[in-house]
Amino acid sequence: MMTVWGVAVAAGCSDKPAAPAAPPPREVEVVTLAPSAVRDTGEYLGSLQSRQSINVLPQVAGYVRRIHVRPGQKVEEGTPLLEVDARQETAALDSAQAQLSSTEVNLELARRTSARTEALYKEGLASAQELERAQAQVQASEAASRSSAAQVAQRQVQLQYHVVRAPFAGTMGDVLVRVGDFVGATTALTSLAQADVLEVSVAVPSTRARALKPETVLEVLDAEGKVVVTSTLFFVAPQADPRTQLVEVKAAFRNTQGLRPSELVRARLVYSTRNALQLPALAVVRQSGQPFALVLQEKDGKTVVMRKPIQLGALGEMAYVVESGLTEGDRVAVSSLQALRDGMPVKVKSPPETRAAAVGNPGGVATGAIQ
Hints:
Blueprint: H1 2-13, E1 26-28, E2 30-32, E3 36-56, E4 62-67, E5 74-75, E6 80-84, H2 87-122, H3 128-160, E7 163-165, E8 170-172, E9 182-183, E10 190-205, H4 206-209, E11 217-221, E12 227-236, E13 246-254, E14 264-280, E15 285-287, E16 290-299, E17 302-309, E18 311-315, E19 319-324, E20 331-333, E21 346-348, H5 352-360, E22 369-370
Parallel strand pairs: 1-21, 3-22
Antiparallel strand pairs: 2-20, 3-10, 3-14, 4-6, 4-9, 5-8, 6-7, 8-10, 10-13, 11-12, 11-14, 12-13, 14-19, 15-16, 16-17, 18-19
């Protein structure tokens, strides 16, 4: 019995368990890298300025009698804005017109007297001295009439100054005076701005301004970073501010977005455009600060992933610019990155071309950083 049991035990110990089957390759999503347009940009804080903007001041002193406009109202050129008390000037104009009427009557009388004297002189009934005196009176009356007419014109012009009118079409600012206030030539009444065409002014570091040209593109962005307005520079300051070492640049655009003068906006300058590879931000693996990409390669008839160190450029909205480490046509894993190891077999989950189109130029966004 002992012998048989020992043989059975020995036979049982000789049976080894079968080796476990290798796990199937992990499915991953990949992108195929291809060069696309990359812009070298800088983002700054810009201020909007109206090409026509003024503070409205009166040309005469007096009390405000009437206000014709309200803040924010759109007005046309020549629209009355405000009236200053003109009763004294009106009385002076009436006096000048009465004086003009008197001189015109005197002129008419002098002319008739001169005509009669000339007729009498021809008949020998008046002396030459009387004729000369009559002719001199006509000339004096004509001079007095011209002087009175000039006084009337002057008073009429002065009276017009009591009505403040809009020098151009635009939008009213806040009205700073009230009816009954006394105003002078230095009293600010209101402001008027034309917002149809605006300028955006940006201060750029002098080192970056060296690359600017008149045709350089400037983009105005909204709070979400979307482009609201695109224009080109028309002005680059010939010298830098000695205190800040910043160079002012300007671009003009037609305001169709409801922007307002003196508003602060995000502005982006496009310094240059080049072709480069772009890698989705989610495809970047970092170790001790060094970025890596998991690149698919063929090895022993299998598709495996290999970790490659890369050098990245600026970050856009969805992708980094690849400066070195990858080449055109490389397939890079973009999913399950934490579970992948060097040499691990993988299976492509979707065709590379499906995502390559989306990554080749992710939204056409710029890759510049805020300066």
